[in-house]
Design brief:
Distance between the termini of chain B: 63 Å
Oligomer: heterotrimer
Shape of chain B: globular
Number of strands of chain B: 0
Largest interface: B-C, 85 and 75 residues
Order of helices and strands of chain B: HHHHHH
Low-confidence stretches of chain B: none
Strand content of chain B: under 5%
Shape of chain A: globular
Radius of gyration of chain A: 30 Å
Helix content of chain B: over 70%
Chains: A mainly alpha, B mainly alpha, C mainly alpha
Helix content of chain A: over 70%
C-alpha cells in the first residue's frame, strides 16, 4: 500500500496543471470539481495508507521514486518516507484541504472564470508542495516543498493582484520566509559537510556521535527556518498582513498547514533537538514569548481576521513551547487540533464576511446569531475548543503542553497559563462582538444578511465535529487508562528522544488534576466576563490611549523594523548605487568602451593611404621576421 | 689576384656606385642614366659567369627597351631637378634606417653560411650558352614560353586601354 | 669568387633599392628602384645556377643542372618588361589627371 504513496502528491499536481493551463477554457464548476476532486482522491489514498501504517509495529518505509542528485559521494534521491508522523500529517493536509477546497468553490464564486481557475490551480500547487514537504525522506526534498509552500503563499496572498497593498503583503511574507530559508539552507549544508548525507535515516543514526556544539549549531539554524515559516518572533509580522488573501487561503495556509511546517520539521528532527539542550531552551523561550506577545496584541484588534491571525501566531508559540520542552507528541497533537478549530474559525469568519458583504470590522457587526445560525453554532464550538474547555479538543492538547512545560520549568507553565487566559478572553470578545448584542452595521448590510450556501456550511459542520471530538484520541493517562492513542501511535517516531529524556519528578495525580482543571475553571470565569462585557458593546468614537493604543498598534513592531532594518538597508543600497555602481562599475565598463574608441582613433592614422608608409611597415616587418628566424634560438 | 678577380671587384664597385647614385641624384634623367650604367655592370657579371645569353638579353631588354621607355616618359612629363618635392625628413630617415637594417640583418644572417668556397667565374660549364638554354626552353618549358607571349599581348592591350583618351 | 661575394653583392643592391623606394617621392624613380631590386635577384639566381652546375660537373661532365635558374631569370625579365609597360601607362594616366607624379597625392586607399 505504501508503494502508492506517489499518488498522493500526484493528484494535486495534475489538478494544478489542468486548472492552470486550461484556466481560460474550463467552466467554473468543472474547475472546482477538478480542484477538490484531486484533493479528495489524495485523501482517500492517504486513508488507505494510514490503515496500513497504524498497525502496531509498523516500521518506517522509504519509497524511492527516482535519483535526483547523484554527484560523486553525495546521493540525494527523490524518495518518500512513509511512517506514522508523515501519514498523520497527510491526513490533516488532505482532509482539511479538501474541506477548504469545497468551501472555496462557493466563497470565490464571484470571481471571473479565469481567476477562479487560477485560484484553484494555486491551491492545488500549494497542497502538492506541502505534501512534498511532509513526505520527503531527506532534508532536500523537504526543502523543495518548503520553498514551494512559500511560493504559493506569495501567489495566494497577492491573489487580488490589482490592489497594491495586497502585493506588498505578499512580498513581505515571501521575503520574511526567505530569511528563514537561509537558516534552513545553512543547516542543510552543514549537515552535508558533517555527515555526507541529508537523508533522515543517515543523519539521525549518526547524530549521537556528533559533538554538542555542532548539533546545537545545526538545530539553531533549522529553527531559524522554522521561525520564518511558522511566524515566531522575530519573523512573525508577515502573518497578520497575509490576511490580505482570500479567507479560505488564510484558513488553509496560515492556520492549518503551511505554518505547521516548522513544527513538522522540528518533530521530524526530534533526536537532533533532544541532543542539543541549548537549542531546546531557545525554542521553548521563543515559543513562549511569541505565545504571550501575540495574545496581547489580539486583545485589541478589531478586524475579525487579524484577531484570528494573531491567535494563530500565539498557538504556534505554544506548539514550539511543547517542542522545546521535549513534548513532541503534544506538539503534533496541538497541530492536529489547531488545524481543526482554527480552520473552522477562519471559515466561519469567511462566512460572516461573505454575509456582511466584505465587511471585516467587528465594531460594525453584532447580533449575527439570528441571521447566521449554522455559522454561529460552529463558530461557538470553535471558540470553546480554542479556549481549552473540556471535553473539546483544545483542552486535551493544550493541557498536555502545559503539563510538560510545568515538568520542565514551572515558570513556563505560569506564563503559558496566562496566555491561555488571554486566548479565552480575546476569542470570546470576538465571538460576542460578532454574534451577540445588537447589530451595529448599516441598514443596507442588514438587508442582505443570510446564511451561506451549503458548500460553505458543510465544511463548517464537519470541522466543528472534528474540533469537538478530535481531542479524544489523546486523553491523558490520568483521566483514563491507556487512552492516549496518539502517543502510542507516534511512539516509534519519537522513541529515541523519549528514551533519552530524563523522566524527572513524575507528577502526582492530584497535581495534575489541579493543573488541568484549575486552569479550566479560571478560563470559564474569563469567558463569562468577556461574554458579558462585549455583548453590550456599543460603538464609540473614543480613541484608545496608553497601553490599549500600543496593543492596537501591535507594539509598533512593524514601525520598529522599518526604522531599524529597512531604512538603513535602503540607505546602504542607495550608497552602493550612487558610488559603486555609477562611479566604479559604470566607469570601468564605459572606460573600456572609451579606451577602444581612443585607440582606434589613434590607429586610424596608420591607414594614411600613403603607399610609402605601407612599404616602410612591410620592410620593418620583414626585418623582424628575419631576426626571429635567424637569431632567436628557439628549441 | 688574377684578372678575373680584378674584373669582379671593378664591376661590383661600378654597380654599387651606380645604384647609390640612382637613389640619391636629384635629376630624374640622371637617375635613369646611372641605372643604365648599373645594368651594364651587371651584364658584365653575367659574362664573367659565362651566362652569355642572359648578358645580352639583359642589355637589350633592360638597358635598351625598358630604360628608353622610362626616359621617354620622363621627358614627356618634362621633369627636372627642382620639380620634385622633398619627402618628410623623418620618413626619409626612417626609410634609410629600415633599408640599412635590412642590409645588416641579411649580412649577419648569412655570413656564417656554409657555402662552397669555389670560384664561380670561368669558362667551364656550357649552360649559359644559348644553344643549351634554347634546347631546354623549347622542350621542357615551352608552355610558359607560349604563355608569356599571351602575357605580352595582354600587357599591350592593357597599356593601350589605360592610356586611351576618351 | 666564392658564392658569398655574389650573395653580398645581391643583398647590397637589394637594400639600396629598398632605401630608394622608401625615400623618394617621385613615382618614376620608385619604379626604377624596383627594377634595381629585380636585377639584384637576377644576379643571385645566376650565381647559384653556376654554383650548382659546377658542383654537378665533377660527377658528370655532360650535366645540365643549373639551366632552370637561368630560364627563370629569362622569364623574370619577360615579366619585368610587361610590368613596366603597364605601370608606365598608369603613371602617364595619373599625370594626365593631376599633373604631378608625387605619390603623396595617391592616398585614395585611405577611404
Amino acid at each position: 500500500m505504501s508503494k502508492l504513496i506517489y499518488l498522493v502528491p500526484l493528484f494535486p499536481l495534475i489538478g494544478f496543471l489542468i486548472n492552470g493551463l486550461g484556466r481560460k477554457a474550463l467552466s467554473k464548476s468543472l474547475v472546482s470539481i477538478i480542484g477538490s476532486g484531486a484533493i479528495l482522491a489524495s485523501f482517500v489514498v492517504s486513508v488507505l495508507i494510514f490503515l496500513d501504517v497504524k498497525q502496531p509495529g509498523y516500521a518506517a518505509q522509504v519509497v524511492h521514486l527516482f535519483d535526483f542528485i547523484k554527484v560523486s559521494k553525495i546521493n540525494i534521491p527523490f524518495a518518500f518516507q512513509v511512517d506514522q508522523l508523515s501519514t498523520l500529517f497527510l491526513l490533516i493536509i488532505t482532509g482539511v484541504g479538501f474541506l477548504i477546497h469545497l468551501y472555496s468553490s462557493a466563497y470565490m464564486h464571484e470571481e471571473k472564470g479565469e481567476h477562479y481557475a487560477r485560484y484553484f490551480a494555486y491551491l492545488n500547487l500549494f497542497v502538492f508542495s506541502m505534501l512534498l514537504l511532509v513526505l520527503g525522506s531527506n532534508y532536500v526534498i523537504m526543502f523543495i516543498g518548503w520553498e514551494g509552500v512559500g511560493l504559493c503563499s506569495y501567489l495566494l496572498i497577492g491573489y487580488w493582484f490589482k490592489n497594491n497593498d495586497y502585493n506588498n503583503a505578499a512580498k513581505k511574507a515571501f521575503v520574511m520566509n526567505r530569511i528563514g530559508d537561509l537558516g534552513f539552507l545553512l543547516a542543510v549544508f552543514w549537515m552535508l559537510s558533517q555527515y555526507g548525507s541529508v537523508d533522515f535515516g543517515n543523519v539521525f543514526s549518526k547524530a549521537e556521535g556528533t559533538s554538542v556544539s555542532v548539533l546545537t549549531g545545526i538545530t539553531l539554524l533549522l529553527f531559524v527556518g522554522a521561525m520564518g515559516k511558522s511566524a515566531q518572533i522575530p519573523l512573525y509580522t508577515w502573518l497578520p498582513d497575509a490576511m490580505a488573501g482570500p479567507t479560505p487561503v488564510s484558513a488553509l495556509i496560515h492556520a492549518a498547514t503551511m505554518v505547521t511546517a516548522g513544527i513538522y520539521m522540528v518533530a521530524r528532527s526530534n533526536i537532533l533537538y533532544t541532543l542539543s539542550p541549548l537549542t531546546q531552551t531557545v525554542v521553548a523561550v521563543i515559543g513562549l514569548s511569541t505565545a504571550i506577545f501575540a495574545a496581547t496584541i489580539a486583545l485589541k484588534q478589531n478586524d475579525i481576521k487579524k484577531v484570528l491571525a494573531y491567535s494563530t501566531v500565539s498557538q504556534l508559540g505554544y506548539m514550539f513551547l511543547a517542542l522545546g520542552v521535549g513534548a513532541y507528541t503534544g506538539a503534533v497533537f496541538h497541530v492536529m487540533t489547531h488545524a481543526f478549530f482554527k480552520a473552522l474559525l477562519f471559515l466561519g469568519a469567511g462566512s460572516v464576511i461573505h454575509a456582511m458583504h466584505h465587511e471585516q470590522d467587528i465594531r460594525n457587526m453584532g447580533g449575527l446569531k439570528k441571521y447566521l445560525p449554522i455559522t454561529h453554532i460552529t463558530f461557538l464550538l470553535g471558540c470553546l475548543a480554542i479556549a481549552g474547555i473540556p471535553p473539546f479538543s483544545g483542552f486535551f492538547s493544550k493541557d498536555e503542553i502545559l503539563t510538560a512545560a510545568f515538568l520542565n520549568n514551572p515558570l513556563y507553565y505560569v506564563v503559558g497559563a496566562i496566555g491561555a487566559l488571554m486566548t479565552a478572553f480575546y476569542m470570546f470578545r470576538l465571538y460576542a462582538m460578532t454574534f451577540r448584542g445588537k447589530f451595529r452595521g448599516t441598514h443596507e448590510q442588514e438587508h442582505h444578511l443570510h446564511e451561506s450556501p451549503s458548500a460553505m456550511t458543510i465544511p463548517l459542520i464537519v470541522l466543528a465535529v472534528l474540533a469537538v471530538a478530535g481531542g479524544w484520541i489523546g486523553i491523558p493517562e490520568v483521566l483514563m487508562k491507556d487512552s492516549h492513542w496518539l502517543e502510542h501511535y507516534l511512539a516509534p517516531v519519537f522513541e529515541n528522544s523519549t528514551f533519552r529524556m530524563k523522566q524527572e519528578n513524575h507528577l502526582s495525580h492530584s497535581t495534575e488534576y489541579l493543573l488541568m482543571f484549575g486552569v479550566a475553571a479560571i478560563i470559564l470565569l474569563v469567558i463569562f466576563f468577556a461574554w458579558n462585557k462585549y455583548s453590550k458593546y456599543t460603538k464609540t468614537t473614543a480613541e484608545n490611549t496608553g497601553l490599549a493604543r500600543v496593543l492596537e498598534n501591535k507594539w509598533f513592531v512593524d514601525e520598529i523594523y522599518d526604522a531599524v532594518i529597512s531604512k538603513p538597508l535602503l540607505a546602504i543600497s542607495k550608497l552602493f548605487n550612487n558610488i559603486v555602481e555609477k562611479v566604479f562599475i559604470d566607469g570601468i565598463v564605459n572606460g573600456v568602451g572609451r579606451l577602444i574608441q581612443y585607440s582606434s582613433r589613434q590607429m586610424r592614422w596608420l591607414q594614411s593611404g600613403q603607399v610609402g608608409s605601407y612599404i616602410l611597415i612591410m620592410v620593418t616587418a620583414t626585418i623582424v621576421f628575419f631576426l626571429i628566424q635567424f637569431f632567436w634560438k628557439s628549441n | 689576384m688574377n684578372i678575373t678577380e680584378i674584373l669582379f671587384w671593378f664591376l661590383t664597385a661600378i654597380a654599387l656606385l651606380g645604384a647609390l647614385m640612382v637613389v640619391f641624384s636629384r635629376n630624374p634623367v640622371h637617375s635613369v642614366l646611372w641605372l643604365i650604367l648599373v645594368f651594364f655592370a651587371i651584364s658584365g657579371h653575367y659574362i664573367l659567369m659565362n651566362a652569355q645569353f642572359l648578358a645580352i638579353v639583359n642589355l637589350i631588354v633592360y638597358a635598351g627597351a625598358i630604360m628608353v621607355l622610362f626616359l621617354f616618359v620622363i621627358m614627356l612629363m618634362n621633369m627636372n631637378a627642382d620639380a620634385e618635392p622633398q619627402k618628410n625628413k623623418w620618413l626619409k630617415m626612417a626609410g634609410t634606417i629600415a633599408g640599412g637594417s635590412l642590409l645588416l640583418v641579411f649580412v649577419a644572417a648569412l655570413k656564417d653560411s656554409e657555402l662552397q668556397y669555389r670560384s664561380l667565374e670561368g669558362q667551364e660549364g656550357n649552360i649559359g650558352l644559348i644553344h643549351h638554354l634554347g634546347k631546354v626552353l623549347f622542350t621542357d618549358y615551352v608552355l610558359p614560353f607560349e604563355i608569356s607571349s599571351v602575357l605580352f599581348l595582354s600587357a599591350m592591350v592593357g597599356a593601350v586601354v589605360i592610356g586611351k583618351k576618351d | 669568387m666564392p658564392i658569398n661575394y655574389y650573395l653580398f653583392l645581391s643583398i647590397a643592391l637589394f637594400s639600396i633599392g629598398i632605401v630608394g623606394v622608401l625615400t623618394r617621392r617621385n613615382a618614376i624613380i620608385i619604379f626604377m628602384c624596383v627594377e634595381l631590386m629585380l636585377n639584384a635577384v637576377n644576379v643571385l639566381l645566376i650565381a647559384f645556377s653556376k654554383m650548382h652546375h659546377l658542383k654537378a660537373l665533377t660527377a658528370n661532365a655532360a650535366t645540365t643542372v643549373g639551366t632552370e635558374a637561368q630560364l627563370f631569370v629569362f622569364f623574370i625579365m619577360v615579366v619585368a618588361a610587361a610590368e613596366v609597360t603597364v605601370g608606365l601607362a598608369i603613371i602617364v594616366m595619373m599625370y594626365r589627371n593631376i599633373h604631378s607624379v608625387d605619390i603623396n597625392f595617391l592616398n585614395r586607399l585611405k577611404h
